[in-house]
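A reminder from the course coordinator: this example appears on the midterm review sheet, so study it carefully.

Given structure:
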């Protein structure tokens, strides 16, 4: 029986040791660049020793569709824009890379500054409901455009007079459209000084200012382009196991050099202490565990406080003992004065003293006793052995002076 039990425990232990990495289903995005990135990510996870495995869904999905799929359990993880609306059933895992707002016009097409500039213009602004489309509609609102003043095209490869799209920095993509010229939302000096970009960030805290440096897109960027960026973030269900999320983050950060080699403009700034302050979703507990991995434990955090508290308690106990000792010494000093006074009165009366002198001495001894009892009641003297010795001494003096009857045998 014992041998069978040991065998069972050994087999169970071996089975636990052989448990493979967790399998996660990652939503395949609609966007070409995002789809290429998640395919590269899945390939890296497949070829490396990792704690998690990633498989891509067969169906491509937009941001809202991806969130619905995660909530329904049809997928586990999705790469979405941080501009999506808050949902209680979705939690942030980590930001991966920024997508930058590119506002571009066709070469020869005037930069839109007022109504009429986009008359019957063809505009590519991403999918309906996307952050790109929302930004363009805000621009159109600001310059007083009506819906029939422009028309949307569904693909940037079509002849478009204006392009407004959030996309990762990808010089090879812009090179496909040499006729486009980027529009800046101001100058780098205006950032933080109340310019257009500051207004956009103030009203949309998930955005942040971004500067595309000179030459990033060749001739399309002859000067710095000031714009805004929003992160692409990994999200999951709020109830996904925290350990799985922790392992996923660890794997991605360990593979960061390989990701940066494939996409040097995106992943080289991904750090172990990534910033989640702009997230539009609550943080997953596994993410919090990872970010707080170096934080001291409760014991470590409060051990110093406990040491100080114990030190203070010992100091207070020592002070209390010292106070009691001082109080006893003071009481002893007081009773010693009574001893001295009683002996002095006794020695002042000899055998030749008159009755009157003896009566005066008796009165003084009784007065000493009364004062001693008063101080005993006021707790200025302790009812201890010293007090009893004084009473015995003073009564002996009274007997000698005839103030008390002789003690009976």
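Designed residues:
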């Amino acid at each position: 029986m014992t041998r069978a039990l040991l065998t069972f425990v050994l087999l169970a232990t071996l089975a636990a040791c052989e448990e493979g990495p967790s399998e996660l289903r990652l939503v395949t995005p609609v966007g070409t660049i995002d789809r290429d990135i998640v395919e590269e990510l899945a390939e890296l996870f497949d070829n490396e020793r990792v704690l998690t495995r990633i498989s891509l869904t067969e169906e491509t999905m937009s941001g809202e569709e991806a969130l619905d799929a995660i909530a329904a359990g049809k997928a586990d993880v999705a790469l979405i824009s941080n501009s999506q609306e808050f949902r209680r059933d979705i939690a942030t895992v980590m930001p991966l890379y920024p997508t930058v707002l590119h506002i571009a016009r066709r070469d020869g097409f005037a930069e839109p500054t007022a109504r009429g500039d986009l008359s019957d213009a063809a505009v590519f602004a991403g999918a309906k409901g996307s952050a790109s489309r929302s930004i363009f509609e805000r621009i159109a609102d600001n310059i007083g455009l009506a819906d029939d003043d422009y028309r949307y095209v569904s693909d940037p490869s079509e002849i478009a007079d204006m392009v407004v799209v959030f996309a990762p920095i990808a010089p090879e993509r812009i090179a496909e459209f040499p006729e486009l010229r980027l529009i800046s939302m101001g100058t780098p000096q205006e950032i933080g000084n109340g310019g257009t970009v500051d207004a956009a960030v103030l009203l949309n805290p998930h955005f942040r200012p971004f500067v595309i440096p000179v030459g990033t897109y060749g001739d399309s960027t002859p000067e710095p382009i000031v714009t805004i960026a929003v992160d692409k973030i990994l999200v999951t269900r709020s109830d996904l196991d925290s350990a799985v999320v922790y392992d996923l983050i660890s794997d991605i950060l360990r593979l960061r050099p390989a990701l940066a080699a494939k996409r040097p403009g995106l992943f080289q700034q991904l750090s172990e202490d990534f910033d989640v302050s702009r997230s539009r979703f609550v943080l997953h507990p596994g993410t919090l565990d990872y970010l707080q991995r170096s934080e001291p434990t409760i014991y470590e955090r409060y051990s110093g406080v406990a040491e100080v508290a114990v030190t203070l308690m010992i100091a207070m106990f020592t002070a209390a003992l010292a106070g009691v000792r001082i109080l006893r010494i003071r009481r002893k000093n007081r009773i010693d004065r009574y001893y001295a006074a009683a002996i002095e009165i006794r020695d002042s009366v000899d055998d030749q003293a008159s009755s009157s002198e003896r009566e005066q001495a008796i009165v003084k001894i009784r007065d000493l006793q009364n004062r001693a009892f008063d101080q005993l009641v006021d707790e200025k003297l302790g009812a201890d052995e010293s007090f009893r010795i004084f009473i015995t001494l003073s009564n002996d003096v009274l007997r000698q002076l005839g103030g008390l009857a002789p003690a009976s045998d």
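Residues 11-18 have pLDDT under 50 and may be disordered. The chain has two domains: 19-295, 299-401.
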